[in-house]
Amino acid sequence: MIAQILSTGDEVLLGDIIDTNAAFLCTRAKELGIAVEKITAVGDFAGSIAAAITEISHEADICLVTGGLGPTPDDCSAQACAMAAGDRLEINPRALETMQAYFAEKGFELNLENEKQALLPSASTVMENSAGTAPGFYLQINQCVFFFMPGVPAEMKIMFETQVKPVLIRRFGLDDDIRVERLTVFGLAESTVGQRMNGFNEQFPKIRIGFRADFPVIEVKLIQHKTGHSSNTAAADLVRARKWVMDRLENKIVSESGRSIAQEVGQLLICQKKTLAIAESCTGGLISNMITDVSGSSEYFVFSAVTYSNDAKVRVLGVDEVTLVEHGAVHEQTAIEMARGARQVAGADIAVSTTGIAGPGGGTAQKPVGTVCIGVADAHTAEARQYRFLFGERSRNKTMFATMALELLRRRLVAVGKTA
Amino acid sequence: MIAQILSTGDEVLLGDIIDTNAAFLCTRAKELGIAVEKITAVGDFAGSIAAAITEISHEADICLVTGGLGPTPDDCSAQACAMAAGDRLEINPRALETMQAYFAEKGFELNLENEKQALLPSASTVMENSAGTAPGFYLQINQCVFFFMPGVPAEMKIMFETQVKPVLIRRFGLDDDIRVERLTVFGLAESTVGQRMNGFNEQFPKIRIGFRADFPVIEVKLIQHKTGHSSNTAAADLVRARKWVMDRLENKIVSESGRSIAQEVGQLLICQKKTLAIAESCTGGLISNMITDVSGSSEYFVFSAVTYSNDAKVRVLGVDEVTLVEHGAVHEQTAIEMARGARQVAGADIAVSTTGIAGPGGGTAQKPVGTVCIGVADAHTAEARQYRFLFGERSRNKTMFATMALELLRRRLVAVGKTA
Question: Which of A214, B253, B297, B371 is most exposed, with the fewest beta carbons within 10 Å of its own?
Answer without folding.
Answer: A214
